[in-house]
Amino acid sequence: MAGSKLAGRGGPSRHPFRPLNSDRILFDGQPIALVVADSYEAARDAGSLISATYEVSEHCTELERKRLEAYVPPKKRSGIPPPPDREAMRRRLSQRRQSRSAGTTG
């Protein structure tokens, strides 16, 4: 699977893609069937006979609405710093801009 075009798709890095592991379709182009045959031609013929029907489920593209359903890891990963405090970053940037503009105008 390492040389496969599908290796690494469908999950975070270092998590293998497991085709046909579930009945849920997660992305466009996801494999939904497996054909085993004695020849390429027989596999192509068998593949053309596969048909599928899908139940369309509700989707939501508003991240703030779905935040309560987000995955929370059981423990924090070591070695990875927490995300920066955005408000503190804005204050520091604002202070830098003010000090630069004060230095260039005076």
Annotate the secondary structure layout.
Elements: H1 40-48, H2 63-66, H3 86-105
Order of helices and strands: HHH
Shape assignment: elongated
Q: In whole angstroms, how far apart are the ends?
A: 64 Å
**SSE-based structural type:** mainly alpha
Helix content: 25-40%
Number of helices: 3
Mean pLDDT: 79
The total strand number stands at 0
Low-confidence segments, given as residue ranges, are: none
3D architecture notes:
The protein is mainly α. It has a domain at about 1-55. Helices cover about 30% and strands about 0% of the residues. The chain is built from three helices and no strands. The longest helix has 20 residues, at about 85-105. The radius of gyration is 25 Å and the shape is elongated.
Short description:
This protein is an all-alpha fold and 106 residues long.
Essential attributes:
about 110 residues; 3 helices
